[in-house]
Amino acid sequence: MDWNTIFVTTVKASIGLETVVYALAAIGVNIQFGYAGLLNFGQAAFLGVAAYGMAVTVATFHLPFWLGILIGLAATIVLAFLLGIPTLRLRADYLAIVTIAAAEIVRLVFRSVQFSSVFGGSDGRQNFSGDFFAMNPYSPGTYGIGPISFNERVTWVLTVGWVLIAIACGLVYLLMKSPWGRVLKAIREDEDAVRSLGKNVFSYKMQALVLGGVIGCFGGFLFALGQASVQPDLFSTEFTFYAYTIVILGGAARVFSPVVGAAIFWVLLVFVGNTLSEAVSAGLLPSLFTVNNIGAVRFMLVGLGLMLLLIFRPQGIFGDKREIALDAR
Amino acid sequence: MHADTTQSRKAAAVAAFAGLDREPGVPKPDPILVVDKVVRRFGGLTAVDVDHVEVQRGSITALIGPNGAGKTTFFNQLTGFDSADEGSWTFNGKQLKGMPAHRVARAGMVRTFQLTKALSKLTVMENMRLGAQNQLGENFFRALIPGSWRRQEDEITERAEELLERFKLAAKRDDFAGSLSGGQRKLLEMARALMVGPELVMLDEPMAGVNPALTQSLLGHVKDLREEGMTVLFVEHDMDMVRDISDWVIVMAQGAVIAEGPPDTIMSDPRVVDAYLGAHHDAPMSAEEFEEQLQEAEAELESEIEEKA
């Protein structure tokens, strides 16, 4: 058992690319679901259209990087309006149905053979991150403390990522302290009451959907840039459900819960995964467990952990137990 | 002093109704709400079919009727929570048909709900603040600059505190609204509606589910609304309450307004008795009615004989 490797990879996972991407996606979900009560089950599509918007602009059409970012942002906002306009006047479940279906449509269009000249089919797109890394202020080398360090490219991606997370958290903090956030939380509790007090509920729900999508879309950009490639299957429905898991793990409607939730989620996955595979190769586990099925066992164990958390701490890490008690009344 | 003004407002409201006809749709001296030919159908069922009705400004008007008379549907129509199939209605001369609920509220016509809608996970204070109109901080971009809305928020908080004091909820200021009792929630909902600054307050069954100990205080608050110059229209089943506080009563049955009148005599109106108890309750048939039925039956028989021949 190489405890040192397990320790190093686990600590790196707590601030690594996945944590950053999922934290941004989860901050978006937290605005939509945690504060406004909108069931957006298509967060993966928001990240997907942003990542592809940028990648396709640069790699397929050879246009500048910043234009790619703008097109990715515009695509996210257009998607939010497309999904929101027909559904946000209806009951909450309609948004859930439409978004989960739309996310699959988006993914299948990206991987379709028909459009492979644009989106690159299931291989996706590469060669679009050059301009981003050209801006890298870090000179070649490794940065970090001892073994817990990253090369200059990863350091650059993580720096941008954590700055974006800080900005997003600051934004959520300011908004949710304000009367704007109050209207959002009230809509989560009862739309009709908010309508009877003279607030345009549809407009606020739309704003929440767009804002959550836009914050998530920065996660999409980073995902693509960090891996220097995009593939359609990165943006499958599991992605959205992991983001929801992270929000609930941290505690819905709390500013930092998506960030801490994402870190814990990835630390758990990496720690359990690495420990299991080390244990298998050291022959410490019964022969039932092999290198091939260890990935599934990892998710079972993490799932079990999350179940225990929900049983013993249903409000999540940052949640307020009194709020959960109100639901039981 | 207070008693005097109560008497005068009450007297003024009652005086306005003096000498009015008891017919449905009777014109009022100074109507704030005028409804014309509002119809709402659910498939084959006509839930609301109101020909004409007016609500007098500065009065407390009760809307009563047996279960299923369409009172709540009518309420939903007027406040924009449901769309009417036909008809029109004006509030202060302004056409409201087709206007969404939030704009109806902004126009000054604010409603409460039969099943109280306290926003459970917001504190009592936040519930109150939400009611205030034209808040700068409710704009997305201004919300990011606390300095731009802080002063207005302080004013709103002050106004909310006064109202909470009046409704005896000041001690609950920082509790979650979900932790209040049923009656306290009704009080909160009414206080929150007042934060909007309404001219016409529409209360949908304000007494439903309220602890009898709180009833008197709630009644007092409704009367206070009139004293402050507001108009109240409320739906209620409790006839004691209707008699106690209303100045005028509108009776609905099977979707239509069937009678209007002052609260002390309305319940003896034969149309109202019919609506509540059914048209052929135990009143004996008069001689004319008997004769009429007999003739009808004979005429029917004759026509059948002619057909066969």
Automatic annotation (TrEMBL), chain A:
Pfam families of this UniProt entry?
A: BPD_transp_2
Chief subcellular location:
membrane
**Membrane-spanning parts:** 6-31, 38-59, 65-85, 156-176, 208-227, 239-256, 263-289, 295-312
Keywords carried by this UniProt record? Cell membrane, Membrane, Transmembrane, Transmembrane helix
Membrane topology of this protein: Multi-pass membrane protein
InterPro entries (alphabetical): ABC_transp_permease, LivM-like
Instruction: Report the subcellular localization.
Output: Cell membrane
Know the name of this protein?
Answer: Branched-chain amino acid ABC transporter permease
List the source organism. Microbispora hainanensis
TrEMBL record, chain B:
Which Gene3D superfamilies is this protein grouped with? P-loop containing nucleotide triphosphate hydrolases
Q: Which GO terms describe its molecular function?
A: ATP binding
Compositional bias per record (Acidic residues), positions renumbered to this chain: 288-309
What Pfam family does this protein match (any one)?
Answer: ABC_tran
Residues of the ABC transporter domain: 33-279
SMART domains according to UniProt: AAA
**Entry superkingdom:** Bacteria
Which CDD domains does the UniProt record give?
A: ABC_Mj1267_LivG_branched (cd03219)
Q: Which InterPro entries match?
A: AAA+_ATPase, ABC_AA/LPS_Transport, ABC_transporter-like_ATP-bd, ABC_transporter-like_CS, BCA_ABC_TP_C, P-loop_NTPase
Q: Where is this region: Disordered?
A: 287-309
What keywords are assigned to this protein? ATP-binding, Nucleotide-binding, Transport
Q: Which PROSITE patterns match?
A: ABC_TRANSPORTER_1, ABC_TRANSPORTER_2
Q: What is this protein called?
A: ABC transporter ATP-binding protein
What is the native source organism of this protein? Microbispora hainanensis
